[in-house]
Amino acid sequence: MKAAGETPSGFADKALYYLAAILVGVATGLIGTALHLAVDRALTWPAVLRAHVGLDGPHFLLLTAAVSAALVLAAVWLVRTFVPEAGGSGVQEVEGAMEGRRTIRWSRVLPVKFVGGLLSLGSGLVLGREGPTIHMGASVAQAAAQGFKLPTMESRGLLAAGAAAGLAAAFSAPLASVLFVIEETRRQFPYSLKTYTGVMIASVVSVVVLELLAGSRPFMAMTVPDLQLSFLPAFVLLGLLLGVAGVVFNRCLIWALDMALALGRRTSFYLLPAVVGCAIGVLLVVQPEATQGGDMLALTLVRENLPLATIAIVVLVRFVMTLASYATGVPGGIFAPILALATALGLLFALCLELVAPLPAGAPSALAVAAMGGLFSSTIRAPLVGVVLIAELTGAYTMLLPTLVTCMLANLVADALGGRPIYEVLLERTLRLAGETPSSARPAANVALPIGGWDQR
């Protein structure tokens, strides 16, 4: 039904755009679900090897190290050879494309991001599947925008819809995905009723496809009891600490990328991925909690009541391996690793509090849930997304107020310390490596690295 005063051509334009958003949601949901299921299956390879080869002890560790390194190197080769911008998360590439400074070469990004993401995530690297699904969703949107011959602003709006659909497919979190566009791409998103509605349509459709194929459930379902308001100061302190942790994480991540780039230029760009792959292959056997994206790890840590020293080791190892994994330049996101690291930090904080005074029942799990939102807020700098994403991921809606307090304070502290959104910093770095200064006065210039070039994410 047409709005009052709307011309037939205006109604047809909206209908066409919404149809494009539906198709983007369907395609992204299918691709994202396929990647999710394929990665889950691929990560069983250590168990398959153990069952079918007659090796044990050091010999088996050498075999898993070799397999993991081979998978990582294959992913690096794909990225370096065919589409350098497919390395890393891809969120900054989407933001750059919405600014008109980057080009999404969808016909190359889609296959390389899927296969490369399957290889890198299947190797056990500490990376998340949301990076590949967001970039692939935007690639689907780019193809649709070209096919429907949409004007520039509507095309950029559809890119945001594809990215939101990709995040929704990764985490089954449609509301957080819509909010992600509002908070994270607020500088680039061409806001209008049409583009905003397109984002909602694509996100909802993507989740519908995901749930039809993979079932309906929170990806990190946790049961957290209600806590008294008198315990709220603990979340205040947690937010303050996570604000500092987020700034440290972001700066260390950029440092790791710079060091990896310098090392690659001096030696070989395949040296670091080979070393990290070998280390991951060993850790998959001897310390599996130090590997993979970490969504299941978060649930395990909350359930197992591990001692303080063990949790501290998990925090340290996850921090180092997240930096090392992302620095390899393979396709993979940082959302999931941040959430797992934050869970461990929240539990570590709870155990430290318990040394001073007894905690109410359920407090450690509550602090772990709030910590996920807090670290997300101080690194990504999207606190509202952090609150809603954690609620949708865990189903712990009783934690809305404590998580909101934690996220708000973490964001404020990060801002006070001069912390910046990690994807904004990554985009500036990408533009600088591509030869364009981030402050350039040419916002409409499309920049893409040459085939075979190297773009450390």
TrEMBL record:
Coiled coil: none annotated. Pfam families: Voltage_CLC (PF00654). SUPFAM superfamilies: Clc chloride channel. One of its GO terms (molecular function) is voltage-gated chloride channel activity. It comes from the Bacteria. InterPro entries: Cl-channel_core, ClC. It is found in: Membrane. Keywords: Chloride, Ion transport, Membrane, Transmembrane, Transmembrane helix, Transport. It is a multi-pass membrane protein. The lineage of its organism: Bacteria, Pseudomonadati, Pseudomonadota, Alphaproteobacteria, Hyphomicrobiales. CDD domains: EriC. The chain crosses the membrane at residues 15-39, 60-79, 158-181, 193-214, 234-257, 269-286, 306-327, 334-357, 369-391. This is ClC family H(+)/Cl(-) exchange transporter. It comes from Chelatococcus reniformis. GO terms for cellular component: plasma membrane.
